[in-house]
Amino acid sequence: MKRIWVFIAVTFIFTWGVEYAMMGAGGLGSRWASALMLLIMAMPALGNAVARILTKEGFTKMYLRPEKADRQTLLLFAAAWFLPIAATVFGAVLYFILHPSMLDIHMDHYTEIYKDVYRQMGREYSDSQIRKALGTQVILGMTLSPCLNLVSCLGCELGFRGYLLPKLMEKYRTPAA
To answer: What is the CB neighbour count within 10 angstroms for residue 8?
Structure first.
C-alpha cells in the first residue's frame, strides 16, 4: 500500500505544481499551455519512476508490451485502431440521415469561419485551399490520431494502467481496482 501512496503523492504534487505554473503563466490562453498540458500528462510516468526508486521496487514488470502477441491480440489492436473510425463514420452518416438540412458537403460554414480567422491574421486563402486543408485535417485526424496521441497519452498509461492498476489489483478485485 505504501507504493500506491508514494505514486499518488508524487504524481499529484508534481501535476498540481505544473498546473499552478500554468495558471500563473495565463492559464489555457498562455502560449505555454500546450507544452504544459503535455508535461501534466507525463506526470503519472514520473510518479511511476519516482515510486519505483523511492520504494526500491526496481523497473521490472513495467507492462510495456503485451504479455502475448498472438493473432487474437493483434486483432484486438486492429479493432482498437479501426472501430473508432468506423463508429465516427457511422455516427456521421446516421446524424445526417436524421438531420439532412445540416449536411454541408462543401463545408461552406467552416470555410467562412476559417476565412474570417485568417483575415484577422492578415492572410487570404481561397475557398478551395481552405476546403483542402479541412478535408486533409479530417482524414489525418481519423487515421493518424492514435499514433500522434500515443506520445501525449503514454505518460498516463505508464502511470495509471502500468503502475497503479496492477498494484490495486493485488489488493482488490478487478471492478474495485
So the answer is: 15
CB of 164 closer than 8 Å to CB of 4 = yes
* In the block, residue with C-alpha cell 482524414: 139
Give this prediction's pTM: 0.65
Q: Check residue 163 and report its DSSP letter.
A: I
Amino acid at 23: M
The predicted-structure confidence for 35-63, as pLDDT tens digits, reads as follows: 889 899 999 999 999 999 999 888 877 76
Q: Is 172 left (phi over 0), alpha (psi -120 to 50) or beta?
A: beta
Burial (CB count <10 Å: 0-12, 13-18, 19+), residue 152: middle
Distance from the first to the final alpha carbon of the chain: 13
The model's pLDDT over 113-171, given as tens digits with 9 standing for 90+, comes to 989 988 998 988 988 899 999 889 888 887 887 777 887 888 998 899 889 998 999 89
Half-sphere exposure of 41 (CA within 13 A, CB side): 14
